[in-house]
Amino acid sequence: MTAIAITSSIIGWLYFACWSLSFYPQVILNYQRKSVVGLSFDFLYFNVTGYICYSIFNSVLFWDPIVKQQYLIKYGPPIPVQPNDIAFAIHGFIITVVTIAQCFIYERGDQKNSMVGIIIGIGIWASLFIIVGLGAGGTITWLFVIYWLSYVKLFITFIKYVPQAYINFKRKSTVGWSIGNVLLDFSGGILSLLQLLLDAVESHNYKVFIGDPVKFGLSLFSIAFDILFMIQHYILYRERNNYQNLTESSTHPHLEDNNSISSEKQPINHSDIDGDNSNSI
After folding, report:
1. Domains in the chain: how many in total?
2. CA distance 241 to 40
């Protein structure tokens, strides 16, 4: 292996680590607060669908000989999927399912999936069934089928953060949404783009950006929204991060009293296990 190939492999596992670890701050935050208030259910609904598509796309393109051959004929080498891509996608699906399970266990206030989100989700799944049916009938190639999955994942990545950004805007707070998740996701996006660039340099084939549009687009969209969330957390709502919606405030009035991110160093009441002091994760 060349130095560039080795570097690409190392960076690939680094971005896998960043993106994989980015799921855990939210899970830990939910556990510490015993609440998912402030976390968008539409985000989770879209996310689990996206990772199902991404897992299938990566696995089939990496292992299926027919699809691999169809790809090589159309785009040429190399195959733009590496083992860390598969591991990341499957891991993302599993942890998203765990986060969804927390929504049934912990306090969630009056939050629920929006009708718009449900309708979009139904439309996405309907398109998937239609495309797979066409592939099974031989009307389209299986390469087209798995690329449709990748486009669905890319579309979901573009829209899934919108409900969360809107909730933060509506509540004028990022409480309930882990900033640790955002920072790790941002780092993973930068590293993912760097790996794609190194792969292109190594193979002298810049079609890898076209050959794996979901990985390229996933990185770009994630970075863009991560910047927005950082602006919300550190600039726009920095002084209002102890704000709670009416349901959570009335149910747990002490939640507004604790906030470790406040500029004032107040003693922490450890009995408030669901307080906002865990928002620093």
Report:
1. 1
2. 17
pTM of the model: 0.76
- Output the DSSP codes for the chain: --HHHHHHHHHHHHHHHHHHHTTHHHHHHHHHHTB-TTS-HHHHHHHHHHHHHHHHHHHHHHH-HHHHHHHHHHH-SPPS--HHHHHHHHHHHHHHHHHHHHHHHSB-TT----HHHHHHHHHHHHHHHHHHHHHHTTSS-HHHHHHHHHHHHHHHHHHHHHHHHHHHHHHT--TTS-HHHHHHHHHHHHHHHHHHHHHHHHHT-TTHHHHSHHHHHHHHHHHHHHHHHHHIIIIITGGGTT---HHHHHH-GGGGG--TTSSS-PPP-TT-TTSGGGGG-
Beta bridge partners of residue 35, listed in sequence order: 107
The band of 199, judged by pLDDT with boundaries at 50, 70 and 90, is: confident
CA–CA separation, 130 vs 159, rounded Å? 22
Q: Which of 47, 12, 16, 59 is nearest to 153 (CA)?
A: 47
**Quick one: what percent of the chain has pLDDT higher than 70?**
81
Cα(60)–Cα(51) distance, integer angstroms? 14
pLDDT band at residue 234 under the 50/70/90 scheme? very high
36, pLDDT greater than 80: yes
User: pLDDT at position 241, please?
Assistant: 59
| CA–CA separation, 179 and 188 (whole Å) | 14
Determine the structural domain holding residue 122 and report its residue range.
3-280
- The interaxial angle of helices 41-63 and 115-136, nearest 10 deg, is 20
β partners of residue 107? 35
Name the burial class of residue 152, with classes exposed (0-12), middle (13-18) and buried (19+) by CB atoms within 10 angstroms of its CB: buried
The single-letter code of the amino acid at 104 is: F
